[in-house]
Amino acid sequence: MEQRAPAPSPSAAAEPSPWRSRGYLPHFEREGLVQALTFRLHDSVPAHVIQSWRAELVRTEKLSEREMILRKRLVRYEDAGHGACWLRDSRVAALLEGTLLEFDGERYRLVAWCIMPNHAHVLIETMGDWTLDRIVHGWKSYTSHAANRLLKRTGAFWAREYHDRFVRDDDHLAVCVRYIENNPVAAGLVLEAGSWRWGSARRRV
Are 36 and 95 contained in the same domain? Predict the structure, then answer.
């Protein structure tokens, strides 16, 4: 790699609670927490599509139910391969995978990952002062600039928000790993998880 991903400055004041919000979704932060996260390209799910879903689901009584349905729709839409799918370019996929691997054992412990054509799934255990928000910011900041250079383009690369969920126990961990590594199979891109080039399943074969 030509340069290391930037390290955002830690917050000067400690958070009174491990729950935080960046304005869209609440996030749970604590050292040593294992978290599954998904981040996507900015054009993979257009804003007007999400807005129409939210308008439709507002009639559903429970907020938790609305968010669950919305999340399922997002997953299906992402897997359908909408948008420019820049991660299908092997140079860009290699760039992202290399960035994830570079800080394994330093900023986090990398448990599983899968780079899809228009989004990525990563399962990590945070370390020290490296909160999830700082880690993801570093990934996205570095790779967006480097990928734009490779693609000879300018403008937004990643969507602003990402989805994360902390792992409750060993059974949940196994479910998360299986889901991440089998995403290319579920999306119809390969027949076996180990056949997908950009993911941890290949390294387990």
Answer: yes
